[in-house]
């Protein structure tokens, strides 16, 4: 098991968002795509009126910071992370939105019934998961028939040279 998916190492790394912000700032500063990954990714989501969304591994919830105004009516959003520290940050940032729940969730054991969500999102977090097969089974289980799973990731050596 590498450091990237060792539970104890992940808990320490994400106890707050200080290291996470450094990586976000690095991308914001040096990316050749000035539109930005978060905007580009958000544009890909097929969100509709009444859509129920689960984001796993939300980090500090930054992808939603400026996007509430772009959501169609009646969207329900569950923003989650494995880290209690990240969940606390997200709760503070997004507590004013009635259609948002923040929960601490392990992608390998999602506490929702089968076919609960239209969309599941897991960006830049799958490399932290010890049992990726179990995680994908869980995502598939909670997705509604014709639901969509959006995921992006970095390779194991993505930041190695930096």
What is the fold's blueprint, element by element?
Blueprint: H1 7-13, H2 18-30, H3 37-44, E1 52-55, E2 76-81, H4 84-94, E3 100-104, E4 117-123, H5 132-142, E5 143-152
Parallel strand pairs: 1-2, 1-4, 2-3, 4-5
Short note summarizing the structure:
The chain is an alpha/beta fold and 162 residues long.
Overview of this structure, please?
- The radius of gyration is 15 Å and the shape is globular.
- Helices cover about 30% and strands about 20% of the residues.
- The model has no long low-confidence stretch (mean pLDDT about 85).
- It has a 5-stranded parallel β-sheet with strand order 3-2-1-4-5.
- The chain has about 160 residues and is an alpha/beta fold.
Question: Which segments are poorly predicted (pLDDT under 50) over 5 or more consecutive residues?
Answer: none
Instruction: Report the major sheet.
Output: 5 strands, parallel
Shape: globular
Number of strands: 5
Secondary-structure element series: HHHEEHEEHE
Radius of gyration from the CA trace? 15 Å
Percentage of helical residues? 25-40%
Query: How are the strands of the largest sheet arranged?
Result: 3-2-1-4-5
N- to C-terminal distance: 22 Å
| Class by SSE composition | alpha/beta
User: What count of helical segments does DSSP give?
Assistant: 5
Oligomer: single chain
Give the rounded overall mean pLDDT. Answer: 84
Strand content: 15-25%
């Amino acid at each position: 098991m590498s450091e990237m998916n060792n539970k104890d190492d992940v808990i320490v790394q994400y106890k707050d968002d200080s290291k996470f912000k450094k990586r976000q700032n690095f991308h914001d500063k040096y990316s050749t795509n000035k539109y930005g990954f978060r905007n580009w990714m958000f544009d890909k989501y097929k969100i509709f009126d009444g859509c129920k969304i689960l984001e796993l591994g939300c980090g500090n919830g930054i992808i939603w910071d400026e996007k509430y105004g772009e959501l169609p009516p009646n969207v329900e959003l569950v923003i989650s992370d494995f880290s209690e520290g990240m969940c606390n940050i997200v709760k503070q940032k997004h507590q004013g939105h009635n259609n948002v729940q923040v929960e601490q969730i392990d992608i390998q054991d999602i506490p929702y019934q089968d076919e609960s969500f239209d969309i599941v999102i897991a960006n830049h977090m799958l490399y932290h998961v010890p049992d990726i097969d179990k995680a994908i089974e869980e995502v598939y289980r909670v997705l509604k028939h014709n639901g969509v799973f959006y995921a992006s990731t970095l390779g194991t050596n993505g930041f190695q040279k930096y």
